[in-house]
């Protein structure tokens, strides 16, 4: 399917040795959002929605993807793809290449805007049609599950029956599917959904996954007419220098964004580390301060005890001096009264020299 094409107007030979990434918003719209690609869009939606004979979509019309503000303060939304099926349902498909912590709220917001836009003054609520939102993310969104395709609605909490079928939210995680496909746990030959999603995941980081691409080309050539048409549209895009220039700008922006986010994550990690170290130092400082205060308190207590002991010692010294003076006075009185000096010394405990 790859070929060398001579572009007369450019007077150069351009060989599509690779493909633009269909996850680029403009490339996705060019593949699925053009009037001349309705069959590709219908096959894509039927594959993702698991349509059977009764629910199968037979046609789809592309709608305006700009959701204008109803009020001045409203946030303007521009969708990747919005279509109305022959059954009257609205189908919104959004591609997300990078991570966003608020993807679920964003998806629900977009769904609500599309659903509410149907209602016009004087129309009954019965005219509100089922609105389907499909988020295809190149990064993991739901850590709660290893399934690559999760479907949400409004259900009763205990018995799990639906309140209504007008809301249907799909979250598709490409990386989970690619990992399963690499382990041969997802077969694009038997599952249309898998082959269409792998088509979106066949280019990663600007690099074509060669083996996966060859397998998808083989499936297309074996009889999948819509997939074959998609490959033709894809190669037309990849041969167009103007599209390629736009794609390179998109890819560079993605790379710059990824580098910026990586740098921010590194800075945030360093900030968190510094904050942790600061908290540790602060805690150690508080501990040292507490220990210092405790030692200071002990020192003050010891000083007080020392002063008290010193005071007691002074008091005892004074008492001893007073006692010694009284004994001297008593001994001398006894000597004056004619008592023997040795006897006086024995009674008072004083030496003869002191007497």
What are the key terms here?
355 residues, alpha+beta, six-stranded mixed beta sheet, two-stranded antiparallel ribbon, 9 helices, 12 strands, disordered N terminus
> Could you tell me how far the N terminus lies from the C terminus, measured between alpha carbons in angstroms?
136 Å
Helix content: 40-55%
Q: What is the global morphology?
A: rod-shaped
**Main beta sheet strand tally, sense and closure:** 6 strands, mixed
Extract low-pLDDT stretches.
Answer: 2-16
Order the strands across the largest sheet as they lie in space: 3-6-7-8-10-9
Query: What is the H-and-E element order?
Result: EEHHEEEEEHEEEHHEEHHHH
Q: Report the total helices.
A: 9
**Beta-strand content:** 15-25%
Structure description:
By secondary structure, this protein is an alpha+beta fold. The protein contains 9 helices and 12 strands. It has a 6-stranded mixed sheet, with helices on both faces. Strands 1-2 form a two-stranded antiparallel sheet. It is rod-shaped and about 150 Å long.
SSE topology sketch:
Layout: E1 5-7, E2 12-14, H1 25-32, H2 38-49, E3 60-62, E4 66-67, E5 77-78, E6 81-85, E7 90-96, H3 103-117, E8 131-137, E9 149-155, E10 162-173, H4 174-182, H5 192-201, E11 203-204, E12 207-208, H6 210-221, H7 225-239, H8 241-336, H9 341-348
Parallel strand pairs: 7-8, 8-10
Antiparallel strand pairs: 1-2, 3-6, 4-5, 6-7, 9-10, 11-12
Helix pairs in contact: 2-5, 4-5, 6-7, 8-9
């Amino acid at each position: 399917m790859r070929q060398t094409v001579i572009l007369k107007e450019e007077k150069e030979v351009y060989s599509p040795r690779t493909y633009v990434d269909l996850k680029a918003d403009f490339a996705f719209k060019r593949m699925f959002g053009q009037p001349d690609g309705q069959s590709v869009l219908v096959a894509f939606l039927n594959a993702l929605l698991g349509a059977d004979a009764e629910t199968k979509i037979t046609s789809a019309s592309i709608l305006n993807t700009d959701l204008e503000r109803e009020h001045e303060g409203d946030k303007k939304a521009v969708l990747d793809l919005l279509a109305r099926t022959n059954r009257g349902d609205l189908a919104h498909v959004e591609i997300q290449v990078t991570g966003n912590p608020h993807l679920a709220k964003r998806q629900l917001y977009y769904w609500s805007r599309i659903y509410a836009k149907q209602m016009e003054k004087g129309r009954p609520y019965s005219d509100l049609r089922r609105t389907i939102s499909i988020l295809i993310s190149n990064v993991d969104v739901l850590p709660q599950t290893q399934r690559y395709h999760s479907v949400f609605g409004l259900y009763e909490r205990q018995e799990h029956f639906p309140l209504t079928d007008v809301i249907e939210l799909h979250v598709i995680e490409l990386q989970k599917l690619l990992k399963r496909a690499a382990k041969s746990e997802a077969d694009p030959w038997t599952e249309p959904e898998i082959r269409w999603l792998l088509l979106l995941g066949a280019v990663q980081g600007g690099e074509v996954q060669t083996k996966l691409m060859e397998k998808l080309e083989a499936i297309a050539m074996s009889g999948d007419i819509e997939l074959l048409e998609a490959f033709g549209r894809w190669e037309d895009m990849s041969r167009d220098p103007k599209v390629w220039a736009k794609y390179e700008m998109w890819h560079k922006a993605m790379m710059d964004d990824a580098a910026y986010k990586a740098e921010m994550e590194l800075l945030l990690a360093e900030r968190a580390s510094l904050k942790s170290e600061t908290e540790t130092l602060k805690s150690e400082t508080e501990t040292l301060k507490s220990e210092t205060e405790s030692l200071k308190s002990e020192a003050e207590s010891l000083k007080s005890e020392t002063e008290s002991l010193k005071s007691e010692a002074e008091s005892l010294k004074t008492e001893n001096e007073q006692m010694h003076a009284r004994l001297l006075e008593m001994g001398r009185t006894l000597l004056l009264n004619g008592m023997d000096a040795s006897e006086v010394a024995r009674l008072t405990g004083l030496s003869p020299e002191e007497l």
